[in-house]
Amino acid sequence: MSATPVRPRPRRLAWACWSLLIAAPLCAAPAFALGAATASPQDHAGVIGLREDYLSAAHWIAQMSDPDRVILDRAGIAAQNARMRQLDASIHDLRALPATLPRDFVRAQIEAISRPPTRTLYDVQGKPVDAAQLRAISDNLAMDRIAGTRPLQYGLVVHRAALRAFPTGLRVFSSSGDTDIDRFQESALFPGDAVAVLHESADGQWLFVASERYVAWVEKRFVGIGDAAQVFGYGASGPYRVITGATATTTYTPEEPRVSRLQLDMGVRVPVLADWPAQQPVNGQQGHAAHVIQLPVRDDQGRLGFAPALLPRSQDSSDDYLALTPRNLLTQAFKFLGERYGWGHSYDTRDCSGFVSEVYRSFGVLLPRNTSAQAVSPALDRIAFGEKDGKARRDAAVDALQVGDLVYIPGHVMMTIGHADGMAWMIHDTSGGSWFGADGKRVQAHLNGVSVTPLQPMMASDTASYVDRITNIQRIRPHTTK
């Protein structure tokens, strides 16, 4: 169960049948409840069962007999991604959209995500958002301005940008004083992401866009509009760099502010200008200590262009996607350890499903955005659990977990890192936790970030454990016909 109530979210742009499938929400990490396992004074930092050495990827790598075995090679990953795009309803094929978009289609997409709130919401000062504010936000949807048909436009994202349920930057919350989970925050897009523009807000400051994995509102200033050849041709050929750190940052440059200190998140792929003359400065700086990359930019008229930028060699990047091995899975996941939890990619960070998506993106593996879609994706190797599945089957599945396996309970996903002390251990981006302390009293921990915890002691309610609530286990591995 989720720590906070959530609304449905849209999935596929199903052009052929005009259908709109609804995905369950992003993960607001579940509230841990009372459990049978109790903490001991030796638990590191008060987290149940935790030892300090468990906070190192090297510890878990050392437990493995073959950490460098290739789980999927490049051809296998390409086949896996093809399956994802073919079979998973949460993945959108932007090129399949028609040249003109009918009004009913655009309206259906907006109505699916921009649903008027039915409960009281609070602003950052803890004050209720009044009816006049909500009415102004609703008016900004400009539903009455949707034309009978709209020419399709494409664009590239030029800066890390929030995807919003409504065309507004107003942050709203379910309760006064709890300002972590913004109910209008949906997800984020990254520099170089392609979008299809479906509509524009009444104030002209927001675009309603479809990306490969999500449909929502984005600030217009973060999208450069271009033709299909520009958008889909960006980085399609030639050398490139893949960001392999949790984040990387381009070099500061006053000469070209549009590409200065730009955040690039794990798995973002950027083309390299390999033929850039060695002695020619890039935005006022010689590039010998950096990679000369090309980034999309937006001019004052909103048109898409491209500019060179410097990605310092000190930043964690690679000339190709990493090999998908257990060692690399652990190394990549632990690069996020301690990062603040960010609902819907808030705070320039990520949430539980964003976390696992970005880890796998550094290998070139495509995953759906939300936990609900990830958990049931027909493109992955899924082990499903229902109410009739008893303790024996669940325990056996937990015992058989492998590094990199994704474990889902309603509203949350965790990544397996190994077994120790008779328990399976997870790394996950979570907002909190609770368990019994040594004194028998309930300990409530506001973990609120990427954390390492055991699986079995955690509880989804006073009487049901996480293991009891497992809905699915997903494994990325060579596909076998079932």
From TrEMBL:
Matching Pfam families: NLPC_P60 (PF00877), SH3_6 (PF12913)
Record flagged with keyword Signal: yes
A GO MF term: cysteine-type peptidase activity
Domain annotation NlpC/P60: ranges: 323-477
Entries under InterPro entries matching the protein: NLP_P60_dom (IPR000064), P60_peptidase_YkfC (IPR027017), Papain-like_cys_pep_sf (IPR038765), SH3b1_dom (IPR039439)
A single BP term in Gene Ontology: proteolysis
Keywords, sorted A to Z: Hydrolase, Protease, Signal, Thiol protease
Signal peptide bounds: 1-28
Similarity comment: Belongs to the peptidase C40 family.
Protein name: NlpC/P60 family protein
Organism: Stenotrophomonas acidaminiphila
